[in-house]
Amino acid sequence: MQHRVDNKMKIQGINIHFEKYIKDPFHPTMVLVHGFLSSTFSFRKLIPLLTSHFNIIAIDLPPFGKTEKSTRFTYSYYNMAKVIIDLLQRLNIQKAYAVGHSMGGQILLYAANKQPDLFQKIVLLCSSGYRKRSHPTLIISSYLPYFSLIIRRRLKNKGVWKSLCDVVHDHSLINQEMIKGYVEPFYDNAIFRALTKMIRDLEGDLPSEELQKIQIPSLLIWGEEDRIVPIEIGKRLYQDLPNSDFISIRNTGHLVPEERPHHVSNFIFDFCLT
User: Fold this and answer.
1) What element of type H or E holds 5?
2) How far apart are CA 44 and CA 62, in angstroms?
3) Of 6, 112, 114, 126, which is most buried with the most CB atoms under 10 A?
4) Alpha helices for 74-203 (secondary structure H)
5) In total, how many domains does the chain have?
């Protein structure tokens, strides 16, 4: 059985939370990167399956999960990619497999573009792609007093149940454990101030010309009913990434690690271990 260790490491001036699951020190390392408004919690069903062949590092990206919610941090894709790179290097990991879900997939693409020799293979689960920077009007509005309260109110009004219904195709999977796990990080009001800064800092997704430079073998796994990042985005990424494979899963939405952990783990094993 795998042993979980919770860790904190100061990177770029803030405390980054990450979890380590070490079952066999001779296993290769796999890093897991979650998506927007999520945390390592989203991989809780996948991790026990992956530890049969990998040692796992699951990171809470700033400002999510148990990572510090600072307004000093620059919340750009580039900077978050650098957090992953710095963490792996400081843990003396010279080569890692990597899995990124949604926004985490885009951050992995940034990391792969910046430090390709650090990654053996990458797996993108419903990765975000081709999004532009926030509209200038929204960026300017984010400087208004109490803008963070507007973000808080909008998220509260939508509610966790409705948000999960948007990302999970089979609503019968939504239970109290899932609701509690996704809502818990938002009890800290500091996250709303950090999200306000993220609106200003976040640049656009990598353009096609940068994606086409990434030679790392990549596997794209998509839910065919994904309403957050439609499957057409996955097919476009597949065309732009020169060394990639594409798999879609029927009757599955955006949150594939929750909905299809066994399918996803088997696809990962077939791709990474051959």
Assistant:
1) strand 3-11
2) 19
3) 126
4) 77-90, 103-114, 136-141, 147-167, 176-183, 190-201
5) 1
Q: Tell me if residue 102 is catalytic.
A: yes
Helix H or strand E segment including 249: strand 244-249
Residue 129: give its domain's CATH number. Answer: 3.40.50.1820
- pTM score: 0.96
Q: Per the residue annotation, which of 127, 148, 254, 265 is the catalytic one?
A: 254
Mean predicted confidence (pLDDT) in 224-241: 98
Q: Are 62 and 68 in contact (CB under 8 A)?
A: yes
171 is catalytic: no
Catalytic residue among 102, 142, 218, 244: 102
Q: How far is CA 134 from CA 170, 194, 199, 200, in A?
A: 31, 15, 7, 8
Sheet order of strands, 29-33 included: 3-11, 14-22, 55-59, 29-33, 96-101, 119-125, 218-223, 244-249
